[in-house]
TrEMBL record:
It comes from Streptomyces synnematoformans. It is a multi-pass membrane protein. Its main location: membrane. Keywords: Cell membrane, Membrane, Transmembrane, Transmembrane helix, Transport. Residues 237-419 form the Major facilitator superfamily (MFS) profile domain. This is MFS transporter. It comes from the Bacteria. The chain crosses the membrane at residues 20-39, 59-78, 90-107, 113-133, 154-176, 182-198, 303-322, 328-348, 369-386, 392-413. It is found in: Cell membrane. The keyword Disulfide bond does not apply. The keyword Cell membrane applies.
Length: 419
């Protein structure tokens, strides 16, 4: 039986059923994490253009770039931080850093304050989201990683989509600021309070280490530089997962900026664009519950490869049906949402499969670094290509890049036997 004594005197067991109270608590925490970043999906680009008078697409997208770069670097720092601090302490610190964000978004006197708020938001998201997913993986053990990550990411991205819809309604009723942003105060307060209740998972990591069949790496092999190199390019499977994660979030960053412009240019109003933008993360979120479970049953690779190809098909649909823009937008959002739901939990589970428990947090931090660099890359690519080649060419480039990423994943990623 997978049990061991804990410092508190309670027996420690690995498994979802055995740890469901803590697992559920962490699910609710990640709802708050996703809801905080969901504040930005609807109102912040409009604040840039309507409140601060920005005319450059690249300038408007600068808040996405600031968020993506900061979150990526924070993800990378999480591995070394967990060697010095407990996961719970890192989780609580992330919430403390996030406290100023909703106030800055609500009352920023200049666009620079919005960008600065996104630096804080990136650190908040890097620490809190990293810890919720790592702690869930710690609790369930290797047999249910796909389901654990699916539930975690589903909670977060359903909250992203739901909050995006809510802030759109509030902005229509009360204006762009401050009402839509101030609901973030509730999310920060709830997330911080619940994180103080969560128990740390160090004992679960120790139990999995004791049961792991392979020898524990020591010395240089546990260092950040070694883990970064191994996850980024030396290990074929980890390399395949990292590049797929980067392209996946590049798609999100790109559509964040391009789709509103593309579909309004073809006659859709803000309500229809809001539907398209809300549908994508909602399907992405809800879909990860069955796809995470499926990843435990049929393996990670099929979901990763076909998920990337499904996303590429979503971009094709966006252009092929532009004479009926609402249909094009909805079908594209459905394909992108389903494709992303297939990929997201399977990628995290695949990285966990190929990383020893002793350096798994570092491997996940490196993977999440490359994945969230995709936000910044997507915003940057969208701004440059849209200005030089036009919106249609930008969407075509995204389709080609995403299909190519899926083919690379098929070539590089291998399945690891699981219990």
């Amino acid at each position: 039986m997978n049990t061991a004594p804990a410092d508190s005197g309670r027996p420690v067991r690995l498994g979802l059923r055995e740890n469901w109270p803590q697992f559920t608590l962490l699910i609710v925490v990640n709802v708050c994490v996703g809801a905080l970043v969901g504040l930005e999906r609807t109102t912040v680009p409009l604040i840039g253009t309507d409140v601060f008078g920005l005319t450059s697409d690249l300038a408007v997208f600068s808040f996405i770039i600031a968020f993506g770069v900061t979150k990526a670097l924070t993800n990378l720092a999480v591995g070394p931080l967990t060697t010095r601090f407990r996961r719970k302490h890192i989780l609580v610190t992330g919430w403390l850093i996030g406290i100023p964000v909703p106030f800055a978004l609500a009352w920023a006197p200049s666009w620079g304050w919005i960008v600065a708020a996104n630096v804080l938001l990136g650190v908040n998201q890097g620490l809190t989201w990293s810890m919720t997913v790592n702690m869930k993986i710690d609790l369930v053990g290797p047999a249910r990683r796909g389901l654990a990550t699916g539930l975690n990411e589903a909670a977060g991205y359903v909250a992203v989509g739901g909050t995006a819809l809510l802030t759109g309604y509030l902005a229509t009723a009360y204006g762009l600021r401050p009402a839509p942003e101030l609901i973030g105060v509730v999310f920060v307060a709830a997330g911080l309070a619940l994180s103080l209740i969560v128990r740390d998972t160090a004992a679960h990591v120790a139990l999995e280490l004791a049961q792991h069949s392979g020898p524990a790496p020591t010395g240089e092999s546990n260092g950040l530089a070694h883990i970064f190199a191994r996850t980024s390019w030396r290990d074929r499977s980890l390399r395949g997962a990292s590049q797929a994660g980067l392209v996946n979030n590049l798609n999100d960053g790109l559509t964040w900026g391009v789709f509103p412009l593309l579909f309004t240019d073809h006659g859709l109003g803000l309500a229809a664009v809001g539907l398209i933008k809300g549908l994508y993360p909602l399907l992405w979120g809800v879909g990860q519950i069955p796809t995470g479970h499926l990843a435990d049953r049929i393996g990670r690779k099929p979901l990763i490869v076909y998920g990337m190809l499904t996303q590429a098909g979503g971009f094709v649909l966006a252009l092929a049906l532009l004479d009926r823009p609402l249909l094009a937008g909805v079908l594209s959002a459905v394909a992108l949402g389903i494709g992303t739901a297939m990929v997201y939990p399977a990628l995290i589970a695949s990285v966990s499969d190929h990383a020893h428990p002793a350096w798994r947090v570092g491997a996940l931090g490196t993977y999440r670094f490359w994945r969230d660099v995709g936000y910044a890359a997507g915003a940057l690519v969208a701004g440059i290509l849209a200005d030089t080649l036009g919106l249609n060419a930008t969407v075509i480039a995204a389709a080609v890049l995403t299909a190519g990423s899926g083919l690379l994943a098929a070539h590089w990623i291998t399945e690891r036997p699981r219990p």
